[in-house]
């Protein structure tokens, strides 16, 4: 992760929710966030209100699977 931004959790937030809200994705990014914030794992799945979380500013786009849609 090159540069980081700090965000604060709100009621009911999980690491996945924060990643999706701020970065628009969760796959592989959640693992990067947990690596940058090892203390989050001790807080449980739902973060306490006001928990500071470091997020990467620039993330690589998650790899896309080749889905076939019926109408293609």
Explain what this protein looks like in three dimensions.
This protein is α+β, with helices and mostly antiparallel strands and 72 residues long. The protein has one domain. The chain contains two helices and two strands. It has helices at 15-23, 29-36; strands at 4-8, 52-56. It has a two-stranded antiparallel ribbon with strand order 1-2. The radius of gyration is 14 Å and the shape is elongated. The model has no long low-confidence stretch (mean pLDDT 85).
Summarize the structure.
The chain has 72 residues and is α+β, with helices and mostly antiparallel strands. It has helices at 15-23, 29-36; strands at 4-8, 52-56. It has one domain (4-56).
| Overall average residue pLDDT | 85
Kindly provide the radius of gyration, computed on alpha-carbon positions and rounded to a whole number of angstroms: 14 Å
Give the overall shape, derived from the CA principal axes: elongated
Largest sheet strand order: 1-2
The major β-sheet equals: 2 strands, antiparallel
Percent of residues in helical segments? 10-25%
| Strand proportion | 5-15%
Poorly predicted segments? none
From the structure provided, what is the oligomeric state, counting identical versus distinct chains? single chain
Number of helices in the DSSP assignment = 2
- Structural domain tally: 1
